[in-house]
Amino acid sequence: MTRYSHPRLNDVSLEAALHALADPCRFAIVRRLAGQAGELSCQSAAQAGAVPKSTLSNHFKILRGAGLIRTRPAGREYLSSLRREEFDARFPGLLDTVLRQPQG
Amino acid sequence: MTRYSHPRLNDVSLEAALHALADPCRFAIVRRLAGQAGELSCQSAAQAGAVPKSTLSNHFKILRGAGLIRTRPAGREYLSSLRREEFDARFPGLLDTVLRQPQG
After folding, report:
1. pTM of the prediction?
2. pLDDT per position as a tens digit, A61-87
3. Residues B24-77: pLDDT tens digits?
4. 3-state SS of chain A?
5. 3-state class of B69 per DSSP?
6. What three-state secondary structure class fits B81?
7. Residue B94: pLDDT above 70?
8. Nearest CB to B22: which of A15, A101, A103?
9. Interface size between A and B, measured as CB pairs under 8 A
10. Above 80 in pLDDT, residue A19?
11. How confident is the model at residue A38 (pLDDT cuts 50, 70, 90)?
12. Inter-chain residue contact B103 with A14, CB threshold 8 Å
């Protein structure tokens, strides 16, 4: 199993954070993770039967790179969770504000 | 002189708004416009001697498309201003939150 690396939040730029959120699929993943207490597997976080696995992997990579999520191997799958406290400390109010925006 | 079209804010998606802000050059333009009472010419808004004019035009186009700015012809130049109230009404708190984020 791969052990993914995760950036320090201080090394994440505002542009990277906004870019990570500026995609409907990634935003849906973040929204689902924000609504969960714990962790989700990549497939269930994405609810993305129609999204190619490589595309999904890239979305998770971008989310990790923006300091939004942490992914860990667990048995035969990978579990991801929001780095909520760290992200909020780096970008105060940003995630809350984005998540409460009207959709559509 | 071109008369640019500007979308209704209701037709702007959250993803388009975040994407428009997720670029250092565009973000700098928005920050400068947010710090001004009035309007700025494209060149002075961007302070971008090093940025090719076509790149700059594209940045302004993306900002217009996201409902962030309005551009009007004025004599021999174009003046741009933030659509602050409209944008804030569509995406409450988003611009304020993004603008007060720590930089770098």
Report:
1. 0.91
2. 999 999 999 999 998 889 999 999 999
3. 999 999 998 998 757 888 777 666 567 888 888 899 999 999 999 999 998 888
4. CCCCCCCCHHHCCHHHHHHHHCCHHHHHHHHHHHCCCCCEEHHHHHCCCCCCHHHHHHHHHHHHHCCCEEEEEECCEEEEEECHHHHHHHCCCHHHHHHCCCCC
5. strand
6. strand
7. yes
8. A15
9. 57
10. yes
11. confident
12. yes
- Residue ranges covered by each domain of chain B: 17-99
Instruction: Find chain A residues with C-beta within 8 A of B24's C-beta.
Output: 15
Pick among 1.20.1440.170, 1.10.10.10, 3.40.50.2000, 3.40.190.80: CATH of B17-99: 1.10.10.10
Nearest to B69 by CA among B58, B79, B54: B79
Q: Which strand (E) or helix (H) includes residue B65?
A: helix B53-65
Q: Using an 8 Å CB-CB cutoff, list chain B residues near A27.
A: 14-15
Strand partners, A70: A81
Contacts of A63 in chain B (CB under 8 A): none
Average pLDDT, chain A: 90
Q: Are A34 and A84 in contact (CB under 8 A)?
A: yes
Residue B74 contacts A, CB cutoff 8 Å? no
Other beta carbons less than 10 A from residue B34's beta carbon: 14
E-only strand ranges, B1-104: 40-41, 69-74, 77-82
